[in-house]
Amino acid sequence: MTPREPATCSMPLMSADCFSNDIHKLDTTNMMWTLISAKGTPARWRDFHSATIIGTKMYVFGGRADRFGPFHSNNEIYCNRIKVFDTETNSWLDSPPTPVLPEGRRSHSAFSYNGELYVFGGYNARLNRHFHDLWKFNPVSLSWRKIEPKGKGPCPRRRQCCCRVGDKIILFGGTSPSPEEGMGDEFDLMDHSDLYILDFSPSLKTLCKLAVIQYSLDQSCLPHDIRWELSAMTTNSTISRPIVSSQG
């Protein structure tokens, strides 16, 4: 018997339910794409992962893959190890295993702040679980640490948007299981329209307001603008739906 070649997903088959682990580069001066011929052991074929640039390296985390190769076979796996790609040498780097790891997930958010990688939320179909945890990865020590922010955070969700603005992360929307039958879509999922702010450098004023909320302190003696800000911090900030008139 001759050895069989591993299954690959060539470009003509991309429309046939196939995962990919290709890397393409966009030259923003002429808006031309180039397929990178990467060296080293690549990340596994996957989708719904994150790829975050820190310095000259790209950190790939999570996503959905298949146990048996690049094609869907209903044997999903969710990798929870970081894969690192060096954009200067076009090489995949080997990263040692770490003792503490977040659960594998897809459709999460990932962003960088102060040279470290943060991962929030996501979904694991094998566990049938949505997440609302926040993890930090240090690319120097190659270590993970779970972060416990102060204040009330978002409920478990996936597909949310996270944008960094200065020292703050603005989180909007996402999808979660519907709490009541008939309120979600055909998969019993519902879309959120709420907004949360994660402040990496809170002022003393912000910390004091968090203490007032946390310990349910009396607000009657506080200035009106402070009471308004406290109300805004504890009221759902959802996008209102358009009002439809009786004439359509």
Automatic annotation (TrEMBL):
Coiled-coil ranges (or none): none
A GO term, aspect molecular function: chromatin binding
Recorded superkingdom: Eukaryota
Cellular component terms per the entry's GO annotation: cytoplasm
Name of the molecule in the record: Kelch domain containing 3
Cross-referenced Pfam families: Kelch_KLHDC2_KLHL20_DRC7 (PF24681)
